[in-house]
Design a protein that fits this description.
The chain is mainly α and about 350 residues long. The chain has one domain. It contains 12 helices and 4 strands.
């Protein structure tokens, strides 16, 4: 079994390299589909495979930056990226990211980084899962009420509409974002990006896990534009994060390269899949993935508190996170193939 393990020279730990490949390919597909770097799954996944948390954070950010560049280029061709909105958000993202990264270094010095990051992940995942499914439930309720009145169902209606409240705040300068079809204060995306950047720096994520929902629910982006614009942001923040974590000596480039090879292929599949799975289909799958990731972290925390069952719980967490990545990737791939077949059939029927 020694063949399946490789020594990471900077972190000084031996890692199950097939697990890195599964994470790379799978998260490439998932990241390209959801419009995020996928670090919300990879950072816990690397930690579960054996990386210390600070190295898991730095390594994932390095792998994420390259993959997001590929996905952003693909989404740009589909017209899903609002570059103006993305550039405005860079101001808050970079400042917030550095604040978060400095907090990680401080937590590492006092020996609390593992515990704090895991519990913060759990709280964040729980909030996001609630937000996604509350949105879906409210939208379905609106549809039932419309049908009961005999009214036509508004296909563009959403469940949660917090963005309308924020758009009513007219603090200059006001800006129009054409691709996202939004008119709001420039301070709204700057403040949102600062908060998501801060959490990204602490949790070792490109910000996609929190920025994609924030773009939808707080700023008001259509889902497909939120996906593409968020990937643009992930790419920039990932490049910055790679530089700052490498400077701090917390990036394992060998693992990042192994994952990036698979991720570059997976990202192409995930990006194309968004052409065939739209709107609330993306949101529901996203919510289920968040719940699965949270369960794997709970198992890891239970292993620390129950030494007698540590091997079983650690193994279960590893199987769950890798199984979740593989299962979600297969689902997205099959939906993409089915959608492509329907498109080809429709074109043939029109001839």
């Amino acid at each position: 079994m020694e063949f399946f393990y490789v020594l990471m020279p900077i972190a000084g730990v031996k890692i199950f390299w097939p697990g890195l490949i599964i994470l790379g390919v799978g998260v490439g597909i998932i990241g390209g589909f959801f419009g995020m770097g996928g670090a919300w799954m990879v950072t816990p996944g690397l930690n579960i495979l054996g990386f210390p948390m600070a190295f898991a954070i730095g390594t994932d950010i390095a792998h994420m930056a390259g993959k997001s560049l590929i996905s952003t280029m693909r989404h740009g061709k589909f017209g899903n990226v609002d570059y103006k909105l993305g550039i405005i958000m860079l101001v808050g993202t970079i400042v917030g990211f550095e604040v978060g990264a400095q907090m990680v270094m401080w937590l590492e010095r006092i020996g609390s980084v593992e515990k704090v990051v895991r519990y913060l992940y759990l709280v964040l995942l729980a909030l996001i899962a609630w937000m996604v499914f509350a949105d879906v439930a409210k939208k379905k309720r609106k549809e039932r009420e419309a049908l009961a009145r005999g009214a036509e169902v508004d296909k563009l209606a959403t469940g949660l509409e917090w963005h309308k409240t924020f758009h009513a705040i007219k603090i200059p300068p006001m800006m129009h974002f054409k691709t996202a079809q939004i008119y709001c204060s420039a301070w709204l995306p700057i403040i949102v990006s600062f908060l998501t950047g801060w959490l990204a720096g602490i949790l070792g994520i490109g910000g996609g896990l929190i920025r994609m929902p924030a773009l939808i629910y707080f700023i008001g982006c259509p889902t497909h534009v939120a996906v593409g614009t968020d990937l643009f942001e992930v790419m920039i923040s990932g490049l910055y994060g790679t530089a700052t974590y490498t400077y701090k000596g917390r990036t394992e480039l060998v693992a990042a390269v192994i994952m990036l090879v698979g991720a570059s292929i997976g990202a192409q599949i995930g990006t194309v899949a968004t052409k065939y799975i739209k709107g609330y289909g993306i949101r529901i799958v996203f919510g289920l993935a968040v719940i699965g990731c949270a369960i794997s972290i709970v198992l890891k925390l239970m292993a620390r508190g129950m030494p007698a069952y540590a091997a079983l719980l650690d193994g279960s967490a590893t199987v769950l996170i890798l199984g979740l990545v593989a299962g979600m990737s297969l689902y997205i791939f099959l939906r993409m193939v089915a959608g492509a077949r329907r498109e080809v059939a429709m074109k043939k029927a029109q001839k």
